[in-house]
Amino acid sequence: MAWKCPDIVVVVPGLIGSVLSKDGKELWGTSPGALWRTIAGGAIDRLALEGADDERDDLGDGVEATSLVANVEMVPGLWKQGGYSILARKLVGGMNLVGGENYFEFPYDWRRSNRVSARKLSACVRTWLVSWKEKSGNQDAKVVFIVHSMGGLVARYHIECLDGWKTTRSLISFGTPYRGSGNALGFLCNGFAWNIGPLKAFDGTNAIRSFDSVYQLLPTYPFVDAGGVHLKRVSELDLPNLDRGRATRARAFHDEIAEAQERNRRADGYATTVRPIVGIEQPTFQSARLDGGTLSLLTSHEGEDAKGDQTVPRVSAIPYEVGQEAAIYIANTHSALQSDDTSDAQIRGILTEPAIDLRKFRAEAGQLGRVGLHLDDAYSSTGPVAIEATASTYVQRIKASVRRLDAPGDAAGIVLWPSDGRYRKDLKLPAGLYRFDTQQEGLHPASDVFLVADA
After folding, report:
1. How large is the average pLDDT for residues 401-417?
2. What structural domains does the chain harbor?
3. pLDDT of residue 78
4. Which of 82, 309, 372, 410 is positioned for an S-S bond with 334, CB 3.0–4.6 A?
C-alpha cells in the first residue's frame, strides 16, 4: 500500500518567490519578458512602498500575491530563485500529496514585514487543517512546513509568536537566514544597481530600501568591523544609507521569535522540530568592514571562512536553539537548494518519520544510554514540582510522562529540556501521588514516584 502523508504540507517561498499582481496584471512573476521588465521596465520601482510599513494587513495599493514563482526568476545581484515547480512535482507527483487537500502553497507579499505575512499564514493554516481533518478523519493531523529562504522567517513567526507550534509537526527549511544575510546589508548600505553589456544601468535601490522584509534579513550577530576590538551588530552602528531605527525594529523581530521560542519550549506539548537544510561550500558574505564611511562585505568572519550558499552564511541557516547535529548539508547554491537532486530524499525521510516507531528496533538495555533522575520524595502543591534528570549520552530533549496514581486519569506527556547541565521541567500539580516515567528513544527508561502535599 502506498504511503499517504497523514499531515498537511505547506510550502512557503522566499524573497521574490511569489507572483505579485495588480488589477489582473503581473507586476512581478513568470510571464514572458518578466526579467526584461525588471531590467528595463522598472518592475521593482513600481513595487516600492511609500513610507514606513505600519504592518496593517492591507496597504490598500491593490497589490496581491497570487501564486508561487514556478520557473527560474533572477535579478542579477539580488535574490535568485530556482523556481518552485520542481519542488511541487516532487511533493505532489512523487510523494502522493494532493493539492488543495494535504498540499498547499502560500504566496505572500514579500515586500511587507514578515509579521504581516505570518498573520495571513496563520489564518490559512487554520482553514486548511480543519478541512483536512474532516476529509481524512485524522484528528491528530498537524502541519509540516517546507520553506525556502525568507519563507522560513514567516513560518517561524507563525509557529513561535502566533501559537502555530500547537498544530505544527516540523519545519523543514532550505537556506533560511535565521541569523540574517550579508547581502541584505550590502543592498541597503551600498545600493542595488548594475550594468550588463550594452544595457543601461539598472537601479532598484529605492525600492529595496523601502521593503521592511529586507531590513528583517539583516545579520543579527556581531557582523561589522568598525575599528574596535570586537565586531558590532548592525543595529549598534550608524552605517551609510541605513535607517538605524528600522534596523533596530528588525532586530526586535528576531528577538521576539527567540523569546517566544524560549517560553514555548517549556509548555506542555511543545514538540515542534526544526530541520535546517544548509547550503555549504559556496563563497558567501559573512562579515563587513566599515572604513571611512564605506562598507565592504567580506567572505570571512574574524578571519575564518565557513562559507555558505552564496546568499546565507552556513552559520546563519541554523536557528539559535538547534544544534549543528540537526542540520543537513547540501553543497549547492541558495537558489538551487529546494530543487537539488538530494532534497526529495531529505523531505521524504522527514515526512515519513511519524510512520516509523523506532522503539520496535531499539538495542538491548545494556546498549542504551542511562538516565539519572533527580526528584524529591515530596513537593508542596503551592510551589513548582521541579523534575530534573541527567543522561549518559547527549539527547536534544527527554520525553516523559506523569501519571497520578491515587485518582483515575491518563498520563500527561511532558518534555524535559537541557538547562545548566541537566534536563528540567517545572510542573504545577494538585496534591496527590504521582509516577514519573521517561520514554526517550536511545535512553533506558527510568521511573520514580513522588508525593505532592497540600501546604
Report:
1. 89
2. 8-355 (3.40.50.1820), 365-453 (2.60.40.730)
3. 47
4. 309
